[in-house]
C-alpha cells in the first residue's frame, strides 16, 4: 500500500520545528565478529568433511602392516536465501511533504531494516543450536550425540547455567577433544558469548579473584578463580533469545561459522506513471551456518 497524504496530515502543515524518524543510535554490527564472511557466485555452497587415518597399531615382526583409509563424514550445504523490503509513495505526498521527512528517510530506514534482518539470521545459528541447526554429522550443532568413526562419541553440551563449574567443563572438553578417528587435536576457546541478561554474571565470574570458599582442616579458605587464566573475552548480544543460554567459542581463525554473500544489499526503485506512485526497496541474498561442531561448546541453561 502506497504512502498517501491522508496518513501524514501533520507533514502537510507548516509550524513544526523538526520531524523525528527513528533517530536512535544503532548497535554496532555483531555477526561479522562471529562469522567468517565470504562471497559466493553459485546458487549454493557445499562444504565436505573427510577424516584422516586412525592411530598406528602394533606390527609384529614378519607380519604385514595394517591398512586403513580416509572416511567421508558428511556435507553441509549453504543455500542462499533472498531478503528484501520496500515501500511506495504517491507523487502528491512527495510534493506536499513540507519537511521532506517521508521520502528523504526512506533509504536510511530500508538499510537499517535489512541490517537488523542480517543479525536475526546470523543469530538463528546460536538460537537454534540445540535443535535444528546442524553441522556435518546431521545432529544438532550443540549435542551429546556426536559420533566419530567406530564407537567414538562426543558431547559439546553443557548441563547448567553459566558458572565457574560450567566454564571448567568447557575447557576440559577442549583439552580432551579428538577428531573423528580418535586422534587428539588442539583447540583453544577465546570467546564467551552470552545474552544481555547474562553479561554482568559473565563479567563477575571471569573477573572475580576467588570462585568459592572451601572448608579445610585449617578452617575456611578462599579458592582462586581458575577461570581467569582461560583468557576468555566476554561478548554479548541482544539477539540471543534464550536469557539462560551461553556459548564458548574459538577464534574465527579456527572455527567454521560461515556467512556467504550471494548478493550484497542493492537499492531498488521504480515509478508507475499511470498511478504516479514511486517505489523504493532494498534486497540481498545470503546464507549462513556452521560446518564443524567442535569449535563451540554451549548450554541452554536450566
Overview of the molecule:
The protein is 18% helix and 33% strand. It is flat. The protein is an alpha+beta fold and 302 residues long. It has one domain (2-12, 27-54, 73-299): Alpha-Beta Complex (phage-related protein like fold). It has a five-stranded mixed sheet. The chain has helices at residues 91-96, 101-104, 106-127, 164-175, 199-207; strands at 2-3, 36-39, 44-51, 71-79, 81-90, 146-147, 153-154, 189-195, 210-216, 219-224, 233-237, 246-250, 257-272, 277-290, 296-299. Strand 6 and strand 7 (153-154) form a beta hairpin.
Task: Kindly summarize this structure in a few lines.
This protein has 302 residues and is α+β, with helices and mostly antiparallel strands. The protein has five helices and 15 strands. The protein has a single domain, classed as phage-related protein like fold, CATH 3.90.1690.
Write the layout of secondary structure elements.
Layout: E1 2-3, E2 36-39, E3 44-51, E4 71-79, E5 81-90, H1 91-96, H2 101-104, H3 106-127, E6 146-147, E7 153-154, H4 164-175, E8 189-195, H5 199-207, E9 210-216, E10 219-224, E11 233-237, E12 246-250, E13 257-272, E14 277-290, E15 296-299
Parallel strand pairs: 1-5, 2-13, 8-11
Antiparallel strand pairs: 3-4, 5-14, 6-7, 8-12, 9-10, 12-15, 13-14
CATH topology: phage-related protein like fold
Characterize the overall form. flat
The number of distinct helices, counting runs of at least 4 residues, comes to 5
What portion of residues belong to β-strands?
Answer: 25-35%
Unreliable stretches covering 5 or more consecutive residues: 3-21
Total beta-strand segments: 15
Amino acid at each position: 500500500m502506497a504512502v498517501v497524504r491522508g496518513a501524514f496530515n501533520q507533514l502537510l502543515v507548516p509550524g513544526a520545528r523538526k520531524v523525528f524518524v527513528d533517530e536512535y543510535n544503532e548497535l554496532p554490527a555483531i555477526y561479522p565478529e562471529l562469522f567468517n564472511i565470504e562471497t559466493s557466485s553459485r546458487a549454493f555452497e557445499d562444504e565436505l568433511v573427510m577424516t584422516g587415518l586412525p592411530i598406528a597399531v602394533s606390527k609384529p615382526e614378519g607380519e604385514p602392516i595394517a591398512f586403513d583409509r580416509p572416511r567421508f563424514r558428511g556435507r553441509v550445504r549453504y543455500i542462499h536465501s533472498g531478503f528484501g523490503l520496500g515501500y511506495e509513495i504517491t507523487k502528491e505526498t512527495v510534493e506536499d511533504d513540507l519537511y521532506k521527512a517521508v521520502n528523504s528517510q526512506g533509504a536510511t530506514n530500508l538499510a537499517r531494516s535489512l541490517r537488523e534482518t542480517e543479525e536475526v539470521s546470523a543469530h538463528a545459528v546460536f538460537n537454534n543450536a540445540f535443535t535444528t541447526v546442524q553441522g556435518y554429522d546431521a545432529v544438532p550443532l550443540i549435542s551429546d550425540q556426536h559420533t566419530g568413526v567406530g564407537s567414538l562419541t562426543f558431547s559439546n553440551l553443557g548441563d547448567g547455567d553459566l558458572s565457574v563449574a560450567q566454564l571448567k567443563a568447557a575447557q576440559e572438553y577442549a583439552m580432551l577433544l579428538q577428531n573423528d578417528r580418535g586422534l587428539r587435536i588442539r583447540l583453544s576457546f577465546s570467546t564467551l558469548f552470552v545474552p544481555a541478561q547474562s553479561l554482568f554474571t559473565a563479567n563477575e565470574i571471569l573477573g572475580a579473584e576467588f570462585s568459592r570458599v572451601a572448608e579445610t582442616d585449617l578452617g575456611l579458605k578462599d579458592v582462586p578463580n581458575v577461570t581467569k587464566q582461560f583468557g576468555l573475552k566476554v561478548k554479548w548480544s541482544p539477539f540471543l533469545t534464550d536469557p539462560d543460554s551461553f556459548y564458548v567459542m574459538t577464534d574465527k581463525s579456527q572455527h567454521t561459522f560461515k556467512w556467504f554473500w550471494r548478493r550484497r544489499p542493492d537499492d531498488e526503485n521504480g515509478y508507475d506513471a499511470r498511478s504516479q506512485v514511486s517505489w523504493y526497496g532494498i534486497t540481498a541474498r545470503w546464507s549462513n551456518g556452521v560446518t564443524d561442531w567442535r569449535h563451540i561448546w554451549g548450554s541452554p541453561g536450566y
